[in-house]
Amino acid sequence: MASWSGTTRRRALTGAVAAVGAGALAAPRAEAAGRVAFPAGRPILIRRATVVTVDRGVLPDTDVLVEGERIKAIGRGLTAPATVIEAGGGLLIPGFVDTHRHMWQTSLRGVGADWTLGDYMQWMITKWGPLFRPEDIYAANHLGMVEAVNDGVTTVTDWSHGLRTPEHAEAAVDALFSVPGRARFAYGNTFATDLGWVTDGRVDRVLRERFTGRPDQLVTMQLALEANDTEDGRAALRFARDRDLAVTSHAGVFGFSGDEQIRFLYEFGALSPSVTLVHAGSLSDGSYRRIAGKGAFLSIASESELSAGQGYPPTAKARAFGIPLSLSMDTVIWWSGDMFSAMRSTLSADRGLAHLRAHEAGHTVAHNALRAADVLQYATLGGARALGLDSLIGSVTVGKRADLVLLRTDTAAMTPVHNPAGHLVFQAGRGDVDTVLVNGRVLKHRGELTGPDLPRARRLAEDSFAYLRSRIPNADWEAAMNPPR
Ligand SMILES: [Zn+2]
């Protein structure tokens, strides 16, 4: 085990002791504030919520009973010996599912606000990425997990392509398991010159040692890679197929990849429902037809595509060809981890393009084709389907795992709520996330994290950033922060 791990565990222990002390002091204040305790093993009854099921419409004034890891019952006037959460009409939704986030970049949050994709490749990938130590990967992923839970993203795909060595991969996985949110570890390595790392034993070792292969493990694993028609590309895809590992690839990225990649994947038999293609905005109709025909998913990162320039968010093409969609945030080095923002920008991009095309043709759009409820589905059940987890998560459904998000509706912006899906997309934000359950466990309540340790996450990220910044020449930092217009 690498030495950083020991350091991390010692820190974790110190943090835990500190937390116990702080908790003892804070308890009277918490009780005064009416904080609810959630004893392990005791069912939880969420009372009088506006339940946005995603798969069966909206259920007003409805109770949801959570027993163990699962949703036990949904109905009106439910009674059970349980810890009660009074929803007061708040919106109860399935947790968001992000299908593409480079969590190893979290400690550099916001640096690239004015970057293009070229700027990102120059600074983040070429110059700074190789500076990351395993503990930097851990710190970023840990903070990313805390952020996801806090924001109601109950499943986040760590598109982990900063894993130069097996120690980096261990650190990434350790961090995902360190917070009890749900995650998909997508093992990648953008620094390698070929895909030999897929088959050289390191991926198999992580798979064997850390993952059960069961979909209900809180963290599951897949591969993140771009395979082309080369010997190592074919070997990597065979490796994934032999192990039943899902694959996610950046695709249809202007200047980087196009129809040739899709044609190869199609002809090699590597397009399937266990493949998620990220961006996919710069492709021909023939490629969209091939993707649709094989049931592969797209991950739309609309804020990324609109700002960085991979290609226009292809939601209209996906609808035209019947390609299932999920949403993602890509990286917080530019944007936020805010899935409300993802829904909003996706809907706006789709409608904006339709209006532009109509005006260019001399007419006007009579009715919007893409609806708020559609992008809410992409952000929840769509993501669950893309990850092959829709039998477990993605909707508020009896029998599914209780990955639930309750939004408060007692603020000005959340009053009144007449159109729940529209409200979620255009009115709500991360600050409205009141309560978060993952796998039946309350991780946030009344706006405060109840499990994840934010102070520790912040400290680790600050230490990591201090190290990384010390390795970046001042001239580079200034140039990166102020890219030429
Ligand atoms: Zn990406």
TrEMBL record:
Alphabetized UniProt keyword annotations: Hydrolase
Pfam families from the UniProt entry: Amidohydro_1
Coiled coil: none
Record-annotated membrane-spanning stretches: none
PROSITE patterns membership: TAT
Residue intervals of the Amidohydrolase-related domain: 92-442
NCBIfam families (alphabetical): PRK08204.1
Protein name as catalogued: Amidohydrolase family protein
The organism of origin for this protein: Streptomyces roseirectus
